[in-house]
Amino acid sequence: MNLFTRLSIWLFCAAVAVWLVAPTLVIVPISFAQKKSLAFPPDGFSLQWYANLFQNPEWSRSIISSLKVAVIVAAVATIIGTVAALGLERMKARPAGLVRAILITPMIVPGVVMAIGIYAVYLDHQLVGTLTGYVLAHSMLAIPFVVIAVGASLSVFDARLETAAASLGASRLATFFTITLPLIAPGILSGLLFAFVTSFDEVIVALFINSPAMKTLPVQIYASMTRDSDPTVAAVGTLMFAATTIIIAAGLWFGTRRRRS
Amino acid sequence: MRDFFSPGRNSFWLVLPALLLLLVALGYPLAQVVLRSFTDPEPGVGNYVWFFSRPVNLAVFQRTFVVAGWVTVLCVVLAYPYAWLMTSVGPNMRVLLVLCVLVPFWVSGVVRTLAWVILLQDSGVINRMIMAMGFEKIRLIRTQTGVIIGMTQVLLPFMVMPLYAVMRGIDLRLVQAARSLGARPMLAFLQIYLPLSLPGVFGGAIIVFILGLGFYITPALLGGPRATMLSTLAQQQVLQQLNWGQGGAMGVILLVATLVLLAFAGRFARRRYQMGAGGK
Amino acid sequence: MAETRHRGAAVDIRAVTKTYGSFTALDDVSLRVEPGQFMTFLGPSGSGKTTTLNVIAGFTDLTRGEILIGDRSVGGLPAHKRNVGVVFQHYALFPHMTVTGNLAYPLKLRRVAAAERDRRVAAALDMVRLTDFAHRYPSELSGGQQQRVALARAMVFDPPLLLMDEPLGALDKKLREWLQLEIKRIHRELGTTFVYVTHDQEEALALSDRIAVFNKGRIEQVGSGSDLYDRPQTLFVGRFIGESTVLTGAHETRGQETAIRVGDEWVAAPGLAGEGRQALLVRPEKITLVREDAAADPALNQLSGRVGEAIYLGSGVKYEVTLADGSRGVVRMALTDRPFALGEPVRMRWRKEDARLLPDDGSSLAAQSGEEP
Known about the structure:
The complex is a heterotrimer of chains A (261), B (280) and C (373).
Chain A lengths: L2 H23 L1 H5 L16 H8 L1 H34 L2 H16 L2 H14 L6 H26 L3 H8 L4 H30 L2 H6 L7 H11 L4 H29 L1
Helix pairs in contact in A: 3-4, 3-12, 4-5, 4-7, 4-9, 4-11, 5-7, 7-9, 8-9
Chain B lengths: L10 H29 L6 H8 L1 H34 L2 H16 L2 H12 L4 H8 L11 H25 L3 H9 L4 H29 L3 H7 L6 H10 L4 H36 L1
Helix pairs in contact in B: 1-12, 2-12, 3-4, 3-7, 3-9, 4-7, 5-10, 7-9, 7-10, 8-9, 9-12, 11-12
Chain C lengths: L10 E10 L2 E11 L4 E5 L6 H9 L6 E6 L2 E2 L11 E3 L11 H11 L4 H14 L15 H13 L5 E5 L7 H18 L2 E6 L2 H7 L2 E6 L2 E6 L1 H6 L4 H6 L4 E5 L1 E4 L2 E6 L2 E6 L7 E5 L5 E4 L8 E13 L4 E7 L4 E6 L11 E7 L4 E4 L5 H4 L5
């Protein structure tokens, strides 16, 4: 390939990369704005929107609600999803394919369609705006991510190690906890993270099933955005961006260190 | 006693909790949507007749497909060189390129859309740049163009990843062989590389198109009334008009469109599998 | 480990059958392995040797029959309660544990006290000569080292029986030969009963006290290496162990001998033919090759043919002779001043009592290499 073609591909991809990253970064300066405006670039500097996040009960309660829901969802979806992934690995190929396809459906069904149905059911069963309601819906949405993440780990896990453990005197339970679990732990961990993020980020279903008593953070952000130009939204976004960056950086750093050792 | 080599035993009990959760939290609600679309306010296909007889609905229906189609085309155009570059650089550069694709995922979907609202608004950065260059300011927010720009950014990873996976598997010696047989670079690309990468293009395109059809947040916040898509319309019917039957019918139409596309994708995936023998 | 040493346990396999649906993997197999013996299960792939090992280890349920280890019937016992060491072809070392961790694993499960555990791990590592590698992870070891760790792990808890499933199959020839010597030494030092599965007849002959030859889910013959080589009881065993010339054709009884027709010539072997087609089997070193002009000897069997191939072996020459009916004779001879040329007409000669008369079971080399079902 000649230099010109290569150079133009590089430039094109650099432009794509900028277009992917830059817009998101716009929220960072906005979050330090002095005036209650989403104009870019903002004037002045203040931390009032970060303060608002913790002082305004609307925001702080929604953050706590979201964290509470996401933590429970992460636990529930990880346990149910991991157990299901283990089951799939042990099933015969045909039924396993069918069950896997069913477990993936929450990723495919359009969010609004699910949300309408869930809202209808929740109205009938007084689940609107309840912790149980959020956890149930979000766990369902998170299951596919856990099944895929743990399934990926299991597909590279050498099941013959379990046979070896049995020959050395380990019961099935001991084998699971001493051999299988430690070896698929990275998959479970990433499933757990995915489940947490799925719940923490979920907005469509939450828009339908929230109530003034219990609102998650994305609903609060959505409401704020459709109501006025409040830079608190940008402060939330910046904090989330920073947190994710730290987690991913840590993951990369840890990952490369482990490979080297 | 456990037989280590025979699969299937007791494994059904392990997937049962997940299936039950799905049945309660997904199957039952979806059944409700379908049921209400045929029974609310009265039994029959009235809601569907209503949907397809109102030009407004048909316009939204058509727009949903047009927007998803544009987003898909843009994703292919942007992702193809990008994924190719990922296959041709060193591991560190590749990590950087992957990170760039994933950054939009790092923040909540709502916040991500907020960034686009800030950029695309009438007095936003882009318009000021356009005006600084001496052009008329253009309307981006609350237009179809704005929606397409926002959605393309969010959906690009779903195009890049399958493309990269397929391109990584292409044996570059085939292209070299074509070159050695006298094919000019462009011809070698068109006749060898492009056909081999098509499964990735189709796989990614189907995913992007399906996700695009069901998109809600971006159209709702960036679109406004003139760029309403099916999801937004269905949501309005239910939450604002309390029109369960009509909202349900729209949901069912969206769901059926998705499933039809998936069935098509499934058939294609099987064909690709058969082709795969010659691909590597 | 010396004071915890005990002699190995006997293994009694009694009329064991294993079926998978309509497929019979093991068909009424019975076999006894004496305490401390080195028993090898030899056979082509799919012959049932590994299934038998899995049944003994408890990895596979048996359909019918009984298995005793020592005087304990283990039929209903899960694998982890059988106290049997197993070495796998694929090593099966736990990648998240060091060598020491792998070795300590079975001892921890048996709640052996820490001090005793360390002592036993050290002794086992010493036994396989890997003391310097105690703190490495399996991924940092070579294939041969990994297999020695696997061996140490399988014996560190002093099982009375050690099962090995093609443990050297993944290693190259030189390493395999050296590890064969190591395994033999360890067997001698431990006194444990060894059951060793392989498809490699040379490996079986090199290692074993006794060999059980498997074919199609049945045991064809059990015996020492020389039993199997010199006195095969079936054509399958004769063909599978070592090389041979196999002659098949019309047969007739001549007194106490049976003669078989090859082209226009007849060769005889002692013994009376049973039902069905018969075959004559002669080992290559029993045959002498002579030129056409050599004087006839009525006491010897004699067949005419042409030299098809001459293979220099270092210690001698192997000739392949194409016989009148198209079958292939194999002759091994010392180096001579006048080697036979390719295509040269020759005669193969051997003493009648050096040939074995066996029923023709239709076995072929292709079938034995697993190429045919």
